[in-house]
Amino acid sequence: MIDEKDLARRPIVQESVQHNARTVSNIRALTASLFGVAAGTLGLESFPGFIFYFLGTATVSMLIYALKAESKPESYFFQPLGDLWAGDLFGGLMSFVLTWTLFYGLCKA
Amino acid sequence: MAALATAVNILGMLFLAHAVYSAYEHSLLPSSSTPTAASYILPQALDPKVNLPLDITLETLFSVFLLCAGVVLSSPELKPIQWNVWAGRLERSKEAREIKEVGVGGGNPYAGLEERAGFLDIRAASRGFEEWRQQQDGGKIES
């Protein structure tokens, strides 16, 4: 719940919020195609491939949490649950599927 | 930090290239198309059915993890979103306090409100300047 009084007392810098969201989105886009390469090379099919993608994004979230956010996500993300842990979760799914099918075709067919 | 990230990225790329090439070579073997034994723990729909050797599987996963760490390390630093932390950093850093243009830089995000030329009391300023000039003139005569 967004408390307006709380926001007036401790204002938020919009520019930093956008910068952080863009950084997370860039990391997600880059790593999604990497997960596709791995999933295709391992020859995963249907559900295990998508589970692999979600496990991978969870790992990347952990890495951002540990390496970039210094274990204090609330000082870098307005809503840590939505912006860091689930931020842009489905944005990289299509590039994941693209490289997944490509490498599956290269290594299996 | 940047050198470490680059090193991790290059290492990850090498491992990934090697793993993918190994998997491709493995797929050319006649024995590679034999189906794997069904898992006892996982249900049929969730069984990954990986029929690669364990070392190639582990190398793929390891290289992807390395590349993820490299991508995260080489991405730009996050900025604090609380206004007090952000503005405190601005005022403390030397390059942010430099004034590059009118209204750009200066370190103080409220500078536009604190120094408003339209609200300047020009009469008081010119009176002060007059007093100062008289003092200067007086000083000259005395010396």
From TrEMBL, chain A:
<dbReference type="InterPro" id="IPR008504">
    <property type="entry name" value="Emc6"/>
</dbReference>
<dbReference type="GO" id="GO:0000045">
    <property type="term" value="P:autophagosome assembly"/>
</dbReference>
<keyword id="KW-0256">Endoplasmic reticulum</keyword>
<comment type="similarity">
    <text>Belongs to the EMC6 family.</text>
</comment>
<dbReference type="InterPro" id="IPR029008">
    <property type="entry name" value="EMC6-like"/>
</dbReference>
<keyword id="KW-0812">Transmembrane</keyword>
<keyword id="KW-0472">Membrane</keyword>
<dbReference type="Pfam" id="PF07019">
    <property type="entry name" value="EMC6"/>
</dbReference>
<dbReference type="GO" id="GO:0072546">
    <property type="term" value="C:EMC complex"/>
</dbReference>
<protein>
    <recommendedName>
        <fullName>ER membrane protein complex subunit 6</fullName>
    </recommendedName>
</protein>
<dbReference type="GO" id="GO:0034975">
    <property type="term" value="P:protein folding in endoplasmic reticulum"/>
</dbReference>
<keyword id="KW-1133">Transmembrane helix</keyword>
<feature type="transmembrane region" description="Helical">
    <location>
        <begin position="89"/>
        <end position="107"/>
    </location>
</feature>
Automatic annotation (TrEMBL), chain B:
<keyword id="KW-0732">Signal</keyword>
<keyword id="KW-1133">Transmembrane helix</keyword>
<comment type="similarity">
    <text>Belongs to the membrane magnesium transporter (TC 1.A.67) family.</text>
</comment>
<keyword id="KW-0812">Transmembrane</keyword>
<dbReference type="Pfam" id="PF10270">
    <property type="entry name" value="MMgT"/>
</dbReference>
<feature type="signal peptide">
    <location>
        <begin position="1"/>
        <end position="19"/>
    </location>
</feature>
<dbReference type="InterPro" id="IPR053279">
    <property type="entry name" value="EMC_subunit"/>
</dbReference>
<dbReference type="InterPro" id="IPR018937">
    <property type="entry name" value="MMgT"/>
</dbReference>
<dbReference type="GO" id="GO:0034975">
    <property type="term" value="P:protein folding in endoplasmic reticulum"/>
</dbReference>
<dbReference type="GO" id="GO:0072546">
    <property type="term" value="C:EMC complex"/>
</dbReference>
<protein>
    <recommendedName>
        <fullName>Magnesium transporter</fullName>
    </recommendedName>
</protein>
<keyword id="KW-0472">Membrane</keyword>
